[in-house]
Amino acid sequence: MKKFPLFLAVVLLSPLTLTNSQCSKECGFALCDMVTEIVVDGVLTVVAGAPFNIPNLIKNLPETANACRGDILETLSAKASQSRIKIDYDINNNGSYAQNVKNSPFDVPEILPGDGAEEMYSFSFDEPGTYQLVTFCDDNNANEERYEDNNKSAEENAGVVPVEE
User: Which of 8, 33, 62, 81 is deepest in the core (most CB within 10 A)?
Assistant: First the structure.
């Protein structure tokens, strides 16, 4: 009868070794995963006072890695949400971008897995200098996502030059 207690202990303890206690309850569920990027080629230079078009692409990735098990899951549709563009001015010309000149929310439609939505912003800047642009998707947290840390685009700089007379 010595085998019975050992067998019982193995059966009772084995579920503990097969689960990861750091995984959330959503571990096995697919979620959406939104990312954003400012779509530009090269250096942005704009003449002061001229229209400045900024294309921004918001994507819902087609699949995402499951953080608990490492397997690949398809993502879910991302509900309509609100995103934001933020533009800061380097008023001291030292790379600090200390003065905020634009912080505008915008609506984004529902995005199916693997699809995207492109927004075009049109601004004009009167002050010559350097500006830093960044966008944020799902800024109002309307969607539960697999990763919330990838909702900010890379910063892009735009140089605004004075109007030549």
Answer: 33
